[in-house]
Design brief:
By secondary structure, this protein is mainly α. The protein contains six helices and two strands; from the N terminus they run αααβαααβ.
């Protein structure tokens, strides 16, 4: 879609009239410099409309004397030369305008290419950050699972410790029973062997329960330390995940801004190409007019005088 023109046909006509009134020839660059706004292609388009709308005199056949014909031929030659010079100047101006438009189009194309590369790089960065975010989320889930398992292990250790404490509380009753058994052993010699065997069994049980309690306490301490470390790792992973999300949001914002700038630049490049094409067509028309003027000069050469009365018989088309 082409951009809306910031100048009008009336402004271009007024600027051309002012330049012609000052004794200079109106050109697209001169009109643009006087207006101080508008693109070169728009000024060329309005100037072409103005030139095509000017009224040209109607052609008619006139029979003139030989001397006047020769004078007219010389005059036409001079006019053709002046017109050629003017058309060549206009052609040079149009070619310069076309070159400017082509240069601007190339700069816009280079800018579009650079912005496209930047957009591809931003997409790659976004994909990389999204991959890292996925890994961090996976690590966070793993840490959470480990923390849950550690909590379950800690609960089981607490249960085992409670059981061990209950067994330890039963030790005084076992000692009382052992004293009673020793008294009965003194009273009942016949049951000494059996009582001593029971006492040995009870002593081994006490030693075994004491070892279990010590091991359970050590395991509980180690599990508490492991749970604390897992909690620290979970907090660190959560903080890293938050930072990664902020980075992804900032990168997404930059991508959206770069996409909008790329769309605007493409629109401007399309307009520049259209303007360059218009300038090329105008240059082709100027070349055609120059060739027509040159052909017109060749057709206006003097004709030989007639035999009757010695009067010239020449026809000049204006």
């Amino acid at each position: 879609m082409s951009r809306e023109a910031t100048i009008t046909q009336e402004q271009v006509n007024a600027a051309a009239d002012a330049i012609r009134a000052s004794g200079a020839k109106p050109t697209a660059r001169g009109i643009r410099d006087q207006l101080g706004t508008g693109s070169m292609a728009t000024v060329l388009k309005f100037l072409q409309v103005r030139q095509s709308g000017q009224v040209k005199p109607a052609a008619q056949d006139v029979i003139l004397p030989l001397a006047l014909t020769r004078a007219l031929v010389d005059f036409i030659g001079q006019e053709v030369a002046q017109a050629r010079a003017g058309l060549e100047a206009e052609l040079a101006t149009a070619q310069q305008s076309q070159a400017d438009l082509i240069g601007e189009s190339e700069r816009q194309a280079a800018m579009i290419e650079a912005q496209g590369e930047a957009l591809d790089l931003a997409h790659a960065e976004k994909a990389e950050l999204q991959g890292k975010l996925g890994l961090m989320e996976t690590d966070l889930a793993t840490v959470r699972d480990e923390a849950a398992r550690e909590r379950q292990t800690a609960e089981a250790a607490r249960t085992d410790l409670a059981k061990a404490q209950l067994r330890l509380e039963a030790l005084p009753r076992i000692e009382v029973e052992a004293d009673r058994l020793r008294g009965e052993l003194d009273a009942e010699r016949r049951a000494r062997a059996e009582a001593e065997q029971k006492a040995a069994v009870l002593a081994s049980k006490v030693e075994y329960e004491t070892g279990l309690r010590q091991k359970a306490e050590a395991d509980l301490v180690e599990q508490a330390k492991a749970a604390e470390e897992a909690h620290k790792r979970a907090l660190a992973s959560a903080e890293a995940l938050g930072n990664a999300r902020v980075t992804v949001q900032a990168t997404t914002a930059r991508l959206e801004a770069a996409a909008r700038e790329l769309r605007d630049t493409r629109k401007e490049a399309d307009a520049a190409r259209a303007e360059a094409k218009m300038a090329g067509e105008e240059a082709a028309e100027l070349r055609g007019e120059l060739a027509a003027v040159a052909g017109y000069g060749r057709e206006a050469k003097p004709q030989p005088a007639g035999s009757a009365g010695g009067k010239p018989n020449s026809t000049v088309k204006r």
